[in-house]
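Morning!

As promised:
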Amino acid sequence: MTGALVFRNLARHPIRTGLAVLGIAIAAALLLDMVMLSGGMERSFSRMLLSRGYQIRLSPQGTLPFDSEAVIPGATPLVATLRTDPDIASVGPVVATPIHVRTAGSTLTVVAYGIDPAGQGLYELERGADLAPGDTTGLLISEPAARAAGWAIGDTVTVFGRLDPQSAEPGAERRLTVRGVVRFLYDARDQRSVAAAFSVVQQFGSLAARDPASMVMVKVRDDALVDAVAARIAAAHPTVEVNSIAMLVAQFRGRLAYFQQLSLILATISLVVAVLLVGTILSITVGERLGEFAVLRGIGIRRSRIVRMVVLEGAALTALGVVVGLGLGLVAARYLDDILTAFPGLPAAISFFVADRDSVIRAGAAVLAAGTLAAAYPAWLAARAPIALTLRAEAE
Amino acid sequence: MTGLPVAVGRDLTRTFLVNQQPVAALRGVSIRIEQGEYVAFTGPSGSGKSTLLQLLGGLDTPTSGALELLGQPLERMSDAALTELRLRRIGFIFQRFHLLPVLTAQENVELPMAEAGLERSARTKRARDLLEYVGLGARADHRATQLSGGEMQRVAVARALANDPVLVLADEPTGELDVETGNQVLDLFDRLHADGRTLVVVTHDERLSGRARRRVRLRDGRVVADEPTDQG
């Protein structure tokens, strides 16, 4: 009977209840978005780095991967050495440099990645064929590059690099055949990129003679051995920066401290708003129904029942708001994510708001707990109302 | 009278603070209500009759004096014990009916039974029987707001009888009703008395006080007369 009473009491003032539910929904949506924001970028970053299962990155000393134009010299012997480690399943060297293609009337610059088809963690094939080991005439292209240059699978194209700054004459030129279209995992949205054999792309860079790599990706056979393998590589190659994904995520987290503080503040505000909203609505409701509660006490209804009734009203009101709010929060997060991820230079795979079951449950539970807690004071007022005095005041 | 005391008050006083000033509603009232009695408290407004009824119903506590309800001294009872007493042994009928508007007549009557822990099928049947008893069997599923004043007061009577109380108290039960509807309630009270209930009513209504067996007149917080009526 308490349940029926709770819902019918809420239905007594449908507009008031509706507005309160809407207010709680907005608070819940904000909280969910802040919970998703506080951990979303980090999870998204980690997921992106691990998307091909490579748990270690080697980069030039003192830099993070692709943080500068510095290179690791002597890449071929380094890769060969790493491949002899029995705990390492795969090694993927990457070299990146700008290259150029001529299109109708203009020169198009794209990013070229040199990869080793025997071990690459840079892209996923979308259509066509991948590069075969030893294929030095094949080219893989991203969708934006294909669109910009008008390329299709099977086309043979001329690419050139190392342009002379004064004459614009190329220092290297090569004809390559488009084998497939790929999605580069770390590219920004609409970034025009291509991939070719590691040794081919090395020739387009200004430091070709030094056998450069921009980064080396390492896949360890057993996740439990990642830290040990990273330490071993660092010890054996002191001129190279060695980071596990966990270490990179930790550095990333440091850079995200601002986002996390902001989301914590906004999340706290949303909870306070929920508490104030539920507390205010229930205080008004209880004030209006004080005579009713006095009568209930008069006919022998226990204080605990009245407390439960009011607290359940708060919980039901909040639960309705939470249900609406979580849906609203997910829609808003998607919209906000679209805006934020359009920021130039951000990898397309990065998300600011990552929806997962834990975030939804945590946000919903926090608002529900706050709303229920907010009902405690009005419930106490309802249960403590002196029966005779309240009835006397009602009669006057 | 059977002689078994249902309520015994000795030298009861009750003082309220009005605008920070103490106002005495009862000034040393002594009263004894015995099982099976039908008593009417009468007197002008402000005489203290409703205050006395609220003390007898355990809705309030005296400022001083001793009150025993159904053999238990009020001053020694905890709030929980007093609540239990009101739930199981006292039925209270309010002047303004005070039914829960969101519940049906049936649910309003079931409410005290649910609180007393009666299982659903038993309380549904008893609520139906009580509504039949007060002549509202056909209106059981109507919300309180869909009932007339007289119907609401009869539902309030059924609610007061829900847990088969020893003592039924009514505060101006006909105060909000027209003559005809009031008469229906008075007939109902006669039946309650005939069925052996102890009935105490506060009223300005001469018809009602005339139907009681004993009339207690109050003025300025004191009992000025305590006498049998023509019925007594």
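Helices of chain B lie at 49-56, 79-88, 105-115, 120-133, 149-160, 179-194, 206-211.

Hope this helps with the figure draft.
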